[in-house]
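Proteins fold reproducibly. Look at a sample protein:
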Amino acid sequence: MEIRSYRTVFDLERRVYRIDRLRLNPAGVPVRGVVYFLAIAAAIALGATLPGLGMIVAALPWYFREIALPAGLACLLVVLRIDGRPFHIAALSLLAYAVQPREVLGQGGAGSCEPWRPDRLLLLPDGSDARVRRLSYTGPGAVLLTVAHARCELRGGSLAGLAGRPLLVVRELPGRRLARPRLIELSDGARLRLR
């Protein structure tokens, strides 16, 4: 027998087996069912006092209105499970979902109708791949290299001169990983290219 969660092992339902000397169902009556019965009976009694609904409730025979209908609905709600959860927990979740706002507004406030968009994300590989990925990065920052590599720094030249910032090109060399990783620090505006 496979147990995927201990929650199912300890999810014991409380039951009432006897009231004084009166023995109930041999399997017992769930306490949750008794609470459902009392809540439904109270709702029907409250509905009988309302102007429009009171006439409909008063038309039902007393034994159906006060015993059979609450007992039948309570039995149904005890057995009913929505997404594996008891009815009262699932109903609260559905109610919370129904009253929550449907749209997330922008940062302009409650009056803004502009949808929210996340900022640009920067994703840098962590070096756990089998090879170095192509990458272009503009400093300030630091790069930790763990593979054998060759560096070529271009300070002059036409391309670096036009951009007005130094360019560092790093190429992966075939071979093994470095015993001690090397840290390359980039100044503000310096560019790094991994190839």
User: Anything to note?
Assistant: The longest strand covers residues 167-186. Residues 121 and 137 are 13 Å apart (CA to CA). The mean pLDDT is 80. The longest helix spans residues 31-49.
